[in-house]
Amino acid sequence: MAASIAHPVKQLRPHASAETLAQLVGVTSGSIPQSIAPARQRPPPQAQPNKQPNQQGRPKQQQQRHSQPRHNTLQLSGADVSRVRTLSIKGQRSIVGLVQLMQQYASAGTLDKYNLAAALDRTVQLGKQADSSRDGAAAWAVLRPLSMKLLQTFNAQALVALLRAATHFGSFSTDELKAWQAALKQQQQLEMLPAIAASNALMSLSTLAAGRKALKAAVDPILVVRLVQGWLQLIPGMLSLNVCQGLYGAVFLGYPFSQQELDRITQQALKVDGRFTAENGAQLFRAWSLLDAAWREWDSSRQLSIVAAASELQPQALYPCNAAVEEVLCRVLSVDMDAQQACQTLLAVGQLRFHTSAASIAALVDVCICYIKRQEQPVMSLFAFLDGCALLGCRLPPAAFKNCLDAVSAACASNPPDAPRYISTAAWALAHLQQCDFEAWQQLAGLAAASSTADWPAVSLCRLFQAYMHVRAEHGQAVQLPAQLLRAASAALAQEINIQGTTSALHSRVACELEAACPGEAVEVEQLVGPGYRSGEAALEGWEEGWLQVDLAVPSLRLVVQADGPYQYFRNKPGVPLPTTLARDRLLRSWGWHVISVPFNISKQQLADHLTQQLRELR
């Protein structure tokens, strides 16, 4: 809920009657109606004989002033009238009534920034109610130009109310965002925003940035840094609701927290205040997974977000403690969830590489499946659900599997431009779960054939080719794709591999030990392999069958050695490979290769013994 807009005027007395307040709300001229005045009048002086002072010693002018009767109207200051109007706005029960009131004030020339800020907040509140989206859009069409006209008069909280409304109604131009940021940067007390306003500002900015690339590029990184640093000062005593929203917004925008800051934020988010919701839990999980992704990007390519660069801080390898993750998951499962919250939580747990109980994962999956059966699953939630299941190795019940395929077909029909994303996500997830049978592949391949290859982004092509290899290995050469699409998919995967980093120190160390363990055999580093023991250029020549790049290969022994890093294992159980890691090794074995996995945390002393033992078992 957005912060209410502060006003410098003293509040109306709380004991004022409802009838009196209702009459005050109608004030537009600045005077109290006659019907209210008698309640505020005193009896004339002659009715109070006991209180008459001795006027003998007073000057004549003062005696005349005190003997004059009072008027029957009470004048309000302009600030009082503004406050009464603000109360009227906050009390509106419908968007239509609110808009009519605002238009009335605007036409009379009496609309001010306080009224407008209150109207923005109230419109968002009413806009979240059922069947109000059309009225909300109409209200925003009225409030938007009025707000931009008064933009330079807004205080920081009013500016946050405007941004929150723009986010809710999904309509803000790049120029408007730049003007809004410039106005906010001029606020001298920006760092003193209340906790709820600071959290709303970060969350709203991140939502706008996620919606359009142009808006994301227009975000002012210095302003974000100021907002986050001010928000951090407010963490003690902050409600869990605001903690989760602010953290997610800041992380999405690219702010690099320290481990100490993350621990403090997580601790505050988990304080029991009765405000924690399933949505907050999903925000926490997503923020944690984004922090992990930011570190991986920095670790592999030294790429910084513009916000991180502006902060002059570097990303760190951050992770919440295992107990905190389990606590959040427990709380999420104990409250009501909708489809989006359940699916986002499932996906975030998978992206975190967090190994939890089968019962917890099953509970999340059950919530998602209930919505799928009722066909109440939002499109993007469906694909978060499929990705989450694949990352955690959670197979679907047969009925849910069929419902998912039907939902994919419906999504492609209703939104053709996003069909490549829908098809590739479903194919990749089902293939890794070993649930993409021949009939399912035929259905997905048919959907893929209906779209132009030129419309497929690189990430979707890579996922489609990976799915194709897994399904073809399982069901044989009957698994097909259109030739042009298949060629483009193979090329996209090759391009992605070329972009990836160079050989790691672990790879080099394993290569030396492998050469010692296999004397006289050629050891190839970062080699391409394919079906039928093909390697090198031969693997690429058979691209229709599939190929993978492996860390080390000994072609003469049909041996692949994978020096797996931490991202191939669960974070909280580093000895347990991820389901996607197991699927990769399963594919290599189906092509006739022996696979040895070398864990990233193996010591130098253990490495030689590990390779020797594994080779002995293969022979």
UniProtKB/TrEMBL annotation:
Domain of life, source organism: Eukaryota
Domain RAP: 559-619
Positions of the UniProt region annotated as Disordered: 32-79
InterPro entries registered for this protein in UniProt: RAP
Ranges of biased composition (kind: Low complexity): 48-72
One family name in Pfam for this protein: RAP
Protein name: RAP domain-containing protein
Species name: Chlorella vulgaris (Green alga)
